[in-house]
Design a protein that fits this description.
The complex is a heterodimer of chains A (114) and B (112). With 114 residues, chain A is mainly beta. Helix content of chain A is 0%, strand content 52%. The chains are: A mainly beta (114), B mainly beta (112). The interface between A and B is medium-sized, with 25 and 22 residues.
Chain lengths: 114, 112
């Protein structure tokens, strides 16, 4: 399976600022996915990112709040914009692999907004 | 739409005792099934997965899971729990169209 590196692993940010999270994969993948895990909760899909096209967002998530870039087949970024304490979560990226099924995750970015 | 249910929010077992974590899914075809473990503040680590073939799947850290189509279940088991197994466990189901759903998770506490 693919090896996924996420940076930063954690950060503490002031409200109103933005944080960009990077996801690097060791092989070319068609689709990359971004998830949010709020404290004590399960994972929620934010968006799907294809190379060369705009990301597709799930209900409740918008591009202005969570802009995503996908410049090539091994890299993606997720920005959490104009942060508030409610954005404090673990953010994870994942990739499609083997039968179009994603099951490999990055180690996550633990974000705390103060 | 597919869905996953983990009936137990929290389970406590004694160290050395056996463990079974339940997972039930709803899906019209044969799903892809997964179990993940997550330590506090960390990412997800894949314990095992089922795509096809033998319905008893062996994973890492001594875990195994059995796919039972008739019961729509994919329960996770371990014969002897170690204190380091204390964590959150997530069951997930996926199809071949990039749709993946997670259960709410089961928190495992291990008593000395």
């Amino acid at each position: 399976s693919a090896v996924i590196s996420q940076k930063p692993s954690r950060d503490i940010c002031q409200r109103g600022t933005s944080l960009t999270i990077q996801c690097q994969v060791d092989s070319q993948v068609t689709m990359m996915f971004w998830y949010r895990q709020q404290p004590g909760q399960s994972l929620t899909l934010i968006a799907t990112a294809n190379q060369g096209s705009e990301a597709t967002y799930e209900s409740g998530f918008v591009i202005d709040k969570f802009p995503i870039s996908r410049p090539n087949l091994t890299f993606s970024t997720l920005t959490v914009s104009n942060m508030s304490p409610e954005d404090s979560s673990i953010y994870l990226c994942s990739v499609d692999f083997e039968d179009n099924v994603r099951y490999t995750f990055g180690s996550g970015t633990r974000l705390t907004v103060v | 739409a597919q869905s996953v249910t983990q009936p137990d929010i929290h389970i406590t077992v004694s160290e050395g005792a056996s463990l079974e974590l339940r997972c039930n899914y709803s899906y019209g075809a044969t799903p892809y099934l997964f179990w993940y473990v997550q330590s506090p503040g960390q990412g997800l680590q894949l314990l095992l997965k089922y795509f096809s073939g033998d319905t008893l799947v062996q994973g890492i850290k001594g875990f195994e899971a059995e796919f039972k189509r008739s019961q729509s279940s994919f329960n996770l088991r371990k014969p002897s729990v170690h204190w380091s197994d204390a964590a959150e466990y997530f069951c997930a189901v996926a199809n071949g169209n990039n749709d993946m759903r997670f259960g709410a998770g089961t928190r495992l506490t291990v008593k000395p």
